[in-house]
């Protein structure tokens, strides 16, 4: 007697279906509606991620998974005019110069994201900022308006991008700083070194980590070479202080030589 078995279709779990970050929107004071990804934290700390010019929140997809696996939550923004945050226009139409252009107004995007977390009872002192390229400059400028953040990570920052300056924020910052730049691009290396030196003066050398890789830029460089170092920095952003030498003299008692 033959037996017949009915084959049931296999259950396929799509990677994005389980454990995926939540798609949310965030409204700014100047009426931009920002698209963002939100992942709750297991350890109470968060990273707000700001992408490069012309990119979007998906730039950090690889890093997001590592941040999540390390227990951190995150908000990955589509900055105004980018990705799905285009209710008032696209970045290509923004003025490239001017201290009040829309690129400079992106600090409002950061403040809105911090405000969302504050409304979830997450204090600003438990929130890190991480930016790539233009996002790094926006993160640095945001220090002026959000001085109480936990720390800031700058991937391939410059002194000025679309008239968004880094130095004003860095010069008043007292919190830990992580800087990553490619040594292949001499101009960017030089500008990142200036930013590092300013951070040394304001935050102290023990609060500044400066890392280089041979090639690639921004999040691509971090994904390939420096993701583990970035996660280590998140876990321990401050180097332990160097203990001073004991001022007291140590006297060694040397036994007298035996008399013959």
What does this structure look like?
The structure is a single chain. The protein is α/β, with parallel strands linked by helices and 260 residues long. The chain has a single domain, classed as Alpha/Beta hydrolase fold, catalytic domain (Rossmann fold), CATH 3.40.50. It is 28% helix and 19% strand. The chain contains six helices and ten strands. The radius of gyration is 24 Å and the shape is globular. The termini are far apart.
Strand-helix topology:
Blueprint: E1 22-27, E2 33-39, E3 46-50, H1 61-69, E4 73-77, H2 107-119, E5 127-132, H3 134-142, E6 151-155, E7 160-161, E8 164-165, H4 167-172, E9 177-182, H5 186-203, E10 208-213, H6 218-235
Parallel strand pairs: 3-4, 3-5, 5-6, 6-9, 9-10
Antiparallel strand pairs: 1-2, 2-4, 7-8
Helix pairs in contact: 1-6, 2-3
């Amino acid at each position: 007697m033959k037996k017949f078995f009915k084959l049931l279709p296999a259950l396929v779990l799509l990677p994005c279906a389980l454990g995926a970050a939540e798609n949310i929107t965030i409204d700014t004071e100047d009426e931009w509606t920002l698209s963002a990804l939100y992942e709750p934290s297991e350890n109470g700390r968060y990273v707000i991620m700001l992408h490069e010019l012309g990119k979007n929140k998906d730039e950090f997809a690889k890093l997001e998974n590592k941040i999540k696996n390390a227990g951190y939550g995150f908000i990955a923004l589509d900055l105004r005019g980018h990705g799905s945050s285009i209710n008032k226009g696209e970045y290509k139409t923004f003025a490239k110069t001017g201290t009040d252009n829309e690129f400079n107004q992106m600090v409002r995007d950061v403040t809105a994201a911090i405000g969302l977390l504050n409304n979830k009872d997450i204090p600003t002192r438990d929130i890190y900022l991480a930016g790539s390229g233009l996002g790094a400059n926006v993160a640095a400028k945001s220090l002026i308006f959000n001085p109480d953040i936990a720390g800031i990570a700058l991937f391939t920052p410059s002194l000025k991008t679309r008239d968004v300056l880094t130095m004003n924020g860095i010069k008043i910052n007292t919190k830990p700083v992580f800087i990553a730049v490619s040594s292949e691009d001499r101009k960017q290396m030089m500008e990142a070194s200036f930013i590092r030196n300013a951070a040394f003066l304001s935050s102290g050398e023990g609060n500044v980590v400066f890392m280089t890789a041979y090639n690639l830029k921004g999040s691509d460089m971090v994904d390939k070479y420096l993701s583990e170092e970035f996660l280590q920095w998140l876990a321990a952003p401050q180097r332990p202080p160097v203990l001073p030498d004991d001022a007291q003299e140590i006297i060694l008692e040397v036994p007298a030589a035996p008399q013959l």
